[in-house]
Design brief:
The protein has a two-stranded antiparallel ribbon. Helix 2 packs antiparallel against helix 5, helix 3 runs antiparallel to helix 4 and helix 4 runs antiparallel to helix 5. With 287 residues, it is mainly α. Helix content is 70%, strand content 3%.
């Protein structure tokens, strides 16, 4: 879960002051970073495969948690429709994604209508269908922008920019929150996050975006970093808070347990997904 940092807590076991198992988190983070670098440098189009696998796992995690919480979301249409949304953007661009999303919504409407058979009326039809459409927009729709980045000019470098700025925001915020965090930012949603952490995220995230504009995207418009950096920090933080509130509603700590020190795949994507859309939009507009 990329996030602004957290207020200092008393360590317990292998956990850091911010509540993470820091050695495990660092190890997993380095492994994921190495995979990202290898794919983007050696086989850039393989990024689609990475995103599609991550999305499938994240969708499964979210759907399972929702079903455990009493929301009967249609898992098979969500999984199949999410994959169609990503892969159809390869040959058809975002138009393919929009068509796949519309088709998936129609399938889910019919799926939920007759899931209990023809002799019984659906239960909580509107509620469950609404939640399923939210998941479709939250995960595969936003993930498609992250995958589609690689199909643009300097695509691999645009993906690097997305990841580097969000990681810089996370690291800067984590450090500032642990060292200086005293004023909770949104205690009713995520009590560990502080305004001091947000300040650290803004400083380090903006510096990361400026560095990406100068040395990775290699553009004379260096000021793009001052546009992209603060935007991504705010959006990444908001994305993390959105997932925190959803988990709070469901009464859970993490969406999954696949990644030691991080939780599930979705707990790593909560900030990256909305940030992928903002990165696509800003770079498509300014580059």
């Amino acid at each position: 879960m990329t996030s602004t940092p957290e207020q200092a807590e008393k360590p317990s076991g292998g956990s850091s002051r911010a509540g993470r198992n820091l050695p495990a988190a660092i190890g997993v983070g380095c492994a994921l970073g190495a995979l990202l670098i290898a794919v983007l440098l050696l086989v850039p189009d393989g990024w689609y495969g990475v995103v599609s696998i991550a999305l499938a796992i994240a969708t499964w995690e979210v759907a399972k948690r929702l079903r455990d919480g009493g929301f009967a979301v249609p898992v098979i249409p969500l999984l199949a429709g999410g994959q169609a949304m990503i892969w159809l953007s390869w040959p058809f661009g975002l138009t393919g994604t929009y068509v796949a999303m519309a088709a998936t919504i129609l399938v889910m409407m019919v799926w939920k209508l007759f899931a209990q058979g023809l002799s019984e009326a659906p239960v909580n039809y509107l509620r469950d269908l609404s939640v399923a459409i939210l998941v479709l927009a939250w995960l595969p729709m936003l993930a498609t922008f992250g995958a589609y980045l690689v199909r643009q000019d300097q695509g691999a470098f645009r993906v690097f920019t997305l990841v580097i700025v969000v990681v810089c925001s996370d690291v800067g915020g984590y450090a500032a929150g642990v060292l200086f965090g005293k004023h909770p930012m949104a205690p009713a949603i995520s009590p560990k996050k502080s305004w001091e952490g947000l300040g650290g995220s803004l400083v380090v995230g903006t510096l990361g975006a400026l560095g990406c504009a100068l040395w990775i995207l290699d553009t004379p418009h260096w000021w793009i970093g001052f546009v992209l950096g603060p935007l991504l920090v705010v959006v990444a933080t908001t994305g993390d808070l959105v997932e925190s509130q959803i988990k709070r509603d469901l009464g859970i700590k993490d969406m999954g347990t696949l990644l030691p020190g991080h939780g599930g795949i979705m707990d790593r994507l909560d900030s990256l997904l909305p940030s992928a859309f903002i990165t696509w939009a800003v770079l498509a507009w300014l580059l």
